[in-house]
Structure formats: C-alpha cells, structure tokens
Design goal:
- By secondary structure, the chain is mainly α.
- The chain folds into 2 domains: 59 residues, no CATH class; 72 residues, no CATH class.
- It has 9 helices and no strands.
- The protein is elongated and about 55 Å long.
- The two termini are 33 Å apart.
Length: 166
C-alpha cells in the first residue's frame, strides 16, 4: 500500500506525526513545553493567536533565506536519506527521446566515474564525491522524466517526435 501524500501545511505534517508519537513524548525529548508542541500542530493564524511557527516552518524559512541546499542535504544525510531537488518546469518539459538520452548519458557518466575510480582497486574521497555528484544528477534527471510522465502532456511530446496527435 503506497504511503499517503505529504500534506501541504507543516502543522498537518506534525499533526500526522503525533499520531505515531505522542506530543508529550516529543515535548520531553526536545525539552520544551507540551503546550508549545500542541501549538506547532495548529495552523498559524496571524493576529489570532492560534498556532506558532513550528520547526518545519523555521527550516523552510532558513532554506529560503540562505538558498543553500547543503542545509537540507545535511539533514537528509543525518537521517539516512538524501535530497533530490525537483526539476524546474523547463527541465521537465523535454521530449521523450531527449529526456531518455539524458538519463542514459548520466547513467553512462556515473558508470564511467565508478570504473575510473575503481581501476586502481581503491576509491579516494574525491572520487567518491564525483560518484555522488553523478548519482545525484542521475536521480534529478530521472525525476524530471517521471514528472513529465505524471503531467501527461504527451500531445506536445508526440508533435516533437514528428508523430500526429491522437
């Protein structure tokens, strides 16, 4: 069964998380008051005193202020995952053949980096960084392709391929 979609509002994400771990446990773990944790799970209403800017809102604001994706990459890494930025509209609007070629080329570049690195039967930190860069780029390009598929605008794609619209 697929995971449910992530809610748009940060307070909803926290509210859902509190179904798995009680707000009291969270408050105790973080060393903050239980009432503060409950306020994080309420919508922040300017001038009405409802919820407060919660930690998720603050992380988002920090990302917007710095525009430095290393922050979120660090956080994802610390939690055993990775961050792949979704492509912009222009990147995801390529035709099927060019998009497929991009995936294959980036995969070939990744394999080349791995082969070159392993040739001497050891992989240095710099070679590891290069492999990681190619791997992240492959994930991003593939995400762009999948996003194009999800959007389903294949009429323009068929035209780009010289095929009549269906």
């Amino acid at each position: 069964m697929p995971a449910p979609p992530i809610p748009e509002a940060s307070h909803e994400v926290l509210r859902d998380a509190f179904e798995k771990v009680s707000p009291k446990e969270v408050a105790d773990f973080l060393g903050v008051s239980l009432s503060l944790v409950y306020k994080w799970a309420q919508p922040a209403e300017e001038g009405k005193g409802g919820g407060l800017a919660n930690p998720l809102d603050r992380i988002e604001a920090l990302m917007q202020a710095t525009r430095d994706y290393r922050l979120i990459k660090w956080l994802c890494h610390r939690l055993g995952g990775y961050f792949v930025k979704n492509p912009s509209g222009a990147e995801s609007n390529k035709g099927l053949v060019p998009a497929t070629n991009d995936i294959l080329q980036e995969f070939a570049d990744l394999l080349g980096a791995i082969t070159d690195s392993a040739e001497d039967h050891k992989i240095t930190k710099e070679e590891t960084r290069l492999i990681r860069r190619h791997w992240d780029e492959l994930k991003s390009i593939t995400e762009s392709f999948v996003k194009s598929c999800e959007e389903g605008d294949f009429a323009g794609l068929r035209e780009k391929l010289g095929q009549p619209p269906k």
